[in-house]
Amino acid sequence: LQTQITFKFKPFQIDLGLDSEDLALHFNPRFHDDADGAVLVCNSKTAGCWGDEKREIHNPLLRGSEVKIVLKLSEDVFEVELPDGQEMQFPNRADMDVITYIRVAGDFKLTSFKIC
After folding, report:
1. What is the 3-state secondary structure (H, E, C) of 79-105?
2. Taking the model in full, what pTM does it have?
3. For the Galectin domain, which residue ranges apply (predicted)?
4. Which residue in 7, 57, 104, 105 is a FRET match for 114, CA 20 to 30 A apart?
5. What is the pLDDT of residues 67-81, one digit of tens each?
6. Longest dimension (CA), the chain
């Protein structure tokens, strides 16, 4: 699975999984996080229960800018490619090899979406 998303954004999230209660990847850039300010957050959800967050303090995304983000599932890990060349990895905790649920939500304008 490879997903490319280009958009102008404010807060948003991208969810990939089986359904809203079983997410292999929850990608959630935050621009005003209480603990860390601007931070990238990845998590998973199994049977409605959230796992431990992985937080990346380096957030190259700027509010209101247009960016391209590429999400890749490579067997046991998700790779999130960001516009500055940074790559964030997140384990495929649920060992999902098929993604049947995709949700992109938040305050942004989606200009393209591609699944390869």
Report:
1. EEECCCCCEEEEECCCCCCCCCEEEEE
2. 0.83
3. 1-116
4. 57
5. 788 888 888 999 998
6. 36
